[in-house]
Specification:
This protein is of the alpha+beta class. The chain has two domains: 274 residues, no CATH class; 240 residues, Histidine kinase-like ATPase, C-terminal domain (Heat Shock Protein 90). The strands form five sheets. Strands 3, 4, 5, 6, 7, 8 and 9 form a seven-stranded antiparallel β-sheet that branches. The longest helix is centred in the N-terminal third of the chain and has 65 residues. The two termini are 51 Å apart.
Length: 586
């Protein structure tokens, strides 16, 4: 298969894998973000509900206190001995008068308490008239306080009428001995059905609110002991209801005394209440805003709008702060690791593919180089043997020359085959070698005769420089002899044109190792060529034809044999080629 086709297949596979991985990553991250958003929304909703509970808890005492007041507290003074049903009768001389608890308004959320008489007259316990004012100024109120209350009462007069309140307040009337519950005009089932998201929460808060009112009403029964036992009870108190009249927020109820009907209530300070609500929800809903709740239950703008149970007020939570998870999530860490593994696998495959293709190419070049190197001596064998066997060579000198040539080519062919077989054994890890301890001088004795024969054939001169110090080494004698012979053979081939025909074989004994060097006086090897020199299969057929004989396997084999014995083979750049074989000392 062609190289470009393999790389194309690899690239397409990598793109498909990366695309699939990217799709899965985006999907998982979207899912994580959706889950995180749902979690944040849930936490925000819990914070909003907590804020609503806190706000209703802040407002409930105010509304319950107003709902539980007896009707006669809306007069500045009332007779101490009067029956419950006769508190609004005319005061006679000698009656003991008690001040109303409302004569002095000490609730900052309430601007003024008011009462509409049956004839429409607007009065307030904080604005006593005539003799009651004189009595109030003696012990309870200052003129300035009365004037401030009068201005607030005038605001009520301009804002709402008795008819408006009667029209919006519940029509039913309750016996004074029955439990009187506060009730908002908007708290009905139709609104709860439309706002299903908050139905259960609103119902729970309303039930809790009503339970508090029942408890307050039971506590009031002690005040009802003054009722006439003989006649019918004609006092009817309606539920205290909160409603908006224009921009004013009021609490009001209808009171029936016999055939006459009063409207009692108070004008709430909406700005003060809004400030209280902001302070209550500062931690949970700091960005909340408030607006009046429509009395028409069909006007529901959004399910995100929440209503208070105590007052007809809508709460818009705004941006609810939710704690953000710090650090990377486990999913993101997993995705990072997965992408890192994918990148590592891709790089590993690319590296393996490159090395495999490069090795395949070098092996193909090696096969072609070996074929060329085998063809040359085989051609010589065939030609010379045909001439010798045919009897055409009758001269003894010519016959001797032919035989020497055949012998030289046989040695060359044997050396080539020996290197190839040795490399094959190292590749298959089937040749461990026989490492033994022997004297360094013995190594030189084993190789000297063979080295001299090779240099004489090439017309070179072998110069052996023995070590000054005797030393023993740990090595495979056959492998050392083959390495040194390969180095000398290369020197014979590449330094043959040098003026100085000497090839130096020397040694240096170190503390832990022994170095054997093979140096010639040829053209030498540059640094760039030196980096490729020890790579296998580096010579093609064309390179083999245009260079000295060989397939470029000797140096690779020699270095691997040296490292297998615990040593190394290196090249020192300089004049001529200088290879150094390092072996460990015994």
């Amino acid at each position: 298969m062609k190289t470009w086709l393999l790389w194309t297949v690899f690239g397409v596979g990598l793109l498909l894998t990366g695309g699939l991985m990217g799709y899965v990553s985006v999907s998982l991250l979207d899912l994580e973000e959706a889950q995180a958003a749902a979690t944040r929304n849930t936490i925000a909703e819990e914070n909003v509900r907590l804020a609503l509970w806190q706000m209703d808890g802040e407002l409930a005492p105010l509304v319950l206190d107003e709902a539980s007041r007896p009707y006669f507290q809306y007069a500045p003074f009332f007779p101490a001995e009067g029956a419950y049903t006769r508190m609004f009768n005319d005061v006679h001389e000698g009656d003991v008068l008690l001040p109303s608890p409302l004569i002095r308004n000490e609730v900052p959320e309430i601007e003024v308490h008011f009462q509409f008489e049956p004839d429409g007259t607007l009065t307030s316990p904080q604005v006593p008239q005539g003799d009651f004012r004189t009595l109030a100024e003696v012990r309870y109120l200052t003129p300035a306080q009365i004037d401030d209350a009068a201005r607030a009462l005038d605001k009520v007069r301009k804002t709402v009428t008795r008819e408006q309140l009667i029209r919006n307040l519940p029509e039913r009337k309750l016996d004074v001995r029955e439990t009187i519950l506060p009730e908002m005009v908007y708290a009905n089932e139709s609104w709860a059905a439309q706002n299903g998201q908050n139905k259960a929460e609103y119902q729970t808060r309303s039930d809790s609110y009503k339970q508090q009112a029942v408890k307050r009403a039971i506590e009031q029964k002690a005040n009802y002991q003054q009722l006439d036992e003989g006649g019918p009870v004609n006092v009817r108190e309606g539920p205290m209801s909160a409603l908006w009249v224009g921009d004013a927020l009021v609490l009001a109820r209808r009171i029936s005394l016999g055939d006459t009907e009063y409207v009692q209530g108070c004008l709430l300070d909406w700005k003060q209440i809004e400030s209280d609500l902001h302070a209550t929800g500062a931690e949970t809903v700091p960005n909340a805003t408030f607006r009046r709740a429509p009395s028409d239950s069909t006007k529901i703008e959004s399910a995100s709008v929440h209503r208070l149970a105590a007052l007809p007020v809508e709460v818009l939570p705004g941006d609810v702060p939710v704690p953000i998870q710090q650090g990377r999530s486990p999913l993101r860490l997993t995705m990072y690791i997965a992408w890192a593994c994918l990148a590592l696998v891709a790089l590993s495959l690319a590296f393996v593919l490159q090395r495999t293709l490069g090795l395949a190419q070098r092996r193909a070049e090696f096969v072609s180089a070996v074929s060329h190197e085998l063809r040359t001596p085989l051609t010589t064998f065939r030609m010379y043997t045909e001439m010798l066997t045919s009897g055409r060579v009758r001269d003894d000198d010519t016959r001797t020359e032919y035989l020497n040539t055949l012998h030289s080519e046989a040695l060359r062919l044997g050396h080539l085959v020996e290197n190839v077989l040795a490399y094959a054994r190292l590749e298959n890890s089937s040749a461990a070698g026989r490492i033994e301890t022997l004297a360094l001088s013995r190594l030189f004795e084993r190789a000297t005769e063979r080295l001299k024969l090779r240099t004489e054939q090439a017309g070179m001169q072998l110069t052996i420089e023995p070590c000054d110090v005797q030393a023993d080494v740990r090595a495979d004698p056959g492998a050392v002899e083959q390495i040194v012979f390969n180095l000398v053979d290369n020197a014979c081939k590449y330094a043959v044109s040098a003026e100085d025909k000497r090839i130096h074989v020397g040694c240096v004994v170190g503390e832990k190792s022994v170095s054997i060097s093979v140096r010639d006086h040829g053209p030498g090897i540059n640094k760039e060529e030196g980096t490729r020199l020890f790579k296998p299969f580096r010579k093609s057929a064309q390179a083999a034809a245009n260079s000295a004989p060989g397939v470029g396997l000797g140096l690779t084999l020699s270095r691997r044999l040296a490292r297998a014995m615990g040593g190394n083979l290196t090249l020192e750049i300089g004049r001529g080629a200088n290879f150094v074989l390092t072996l460990p000392r015994a």
